[in-house]
């Protein structure tokens, strides 16, 4: 993996992932690239594969992670990247033909009650307050 690929991945995902997540994303993009090349019967650049992956896989999943309240509740306590990777694995099972179904499966398998969600948020708030006190 070239340094330029790492930089491009981090830039296009706009801070949703850390450098530690890049190898897994790189594998996803290369897998998507191979699939595109098979279907198109020609080679494509990494950049073209990246932009196709962003449009057809990354954004449909990450938009749900960020905007769907049920997903946010199911993924409370996790980084956005972790929720994305979990849903990606579920969507991969049907070759990304039904990302909404994968999102629903994620919610069903990881769903928490609103009570659990509120407790998790309270715990995070207390942890942040503790960190602020320790920093002083």
Q: Topology of this protein?
A:
Elements lengths: L2 H10 L9 H19 L5 H22 L1 H6 L5 H13 L6 H12 L3 H22 L1
Task: Report on this structure.
The protein has 136 residues and is mostly helical. It has one domain (3-135). Helices cover 76% and strands 0% of the residues. The longest helix has 22 residues, at 46-67.
Roughly what fraction of the amino acids lie in strands? under 5%
- Order of H and E elements: HHHHHHH
* Terminus-to-terminus distance: 41 Å
Ranges with pLDDT <50 over ≥5 residues? none
Q: Biggest β-sheet, characterized?
A: none
Count the DSSP helices: 7
Mean pLDDT: 88
Rg, Å, rounded: 17 Å
Short description:
The chain is mostly helical and 136 residues long.
Descriptive terms for the model:
single chain, mainly alpha, 7 helices, 0% strand
């Amino acid at each position: 993996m070239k340094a330029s690929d790492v930089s491009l991945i981090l830039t296009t995902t706009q801070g949703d992932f850390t450098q530690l997540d890049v190898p897994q994303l790189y594998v996803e993009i290369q897998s998507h690239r191979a699939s595109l090349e098979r279907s198109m019967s020609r080679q494509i650049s990494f950049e073209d594969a990246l932009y196709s992956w962003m449009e057809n896989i990354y954004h449909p999943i990450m938009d749900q992670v960020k905007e769907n309240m049920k997903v946010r509740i199911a993924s409370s306590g996790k980084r956005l990247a972790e929720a994305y990777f979990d849903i990606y694995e579920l969507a991969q099972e049907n070759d990304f033909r039904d990302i909404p179904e994968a999102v629903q499966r994620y919610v069903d398998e990881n769903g928490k009650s609103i009570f659990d969600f509120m407790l998790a948020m309270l715990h995070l708030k207390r942890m942040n307050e503790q960190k602020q006190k320790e920093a002083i």
